[in-house]
Specification:
The protein is mostly helical. The chain contains 3 helices and no strands. It has helices at residues 9-21, 25-56, 63-74. The relative contact order is 0.05.
Amino acid sequence: MKRPSSMPREQRLPVLHRMIGDLPDEDLRVAELVLARLEMDRLLKEAREGFDNDWAAGKYEKLDEVIREVRESLMPHAA
């Protein structure tokens, strides 16, 4: 069998599905964790890029001021 990484995507997916389907339960759990980690890393990268773009666009200019105001409003007032 050809290695999945050397094939076009449309041929790779069925091969990967078969490989995953043939895994024993213990290895399937490991594959699930690896895939979850890949997804988490991808989403984190997208979120980080979004924050970087927003920061560069000046959308957080007043963030420190807003946080300070919220903290002050939440502090118990001295009698």
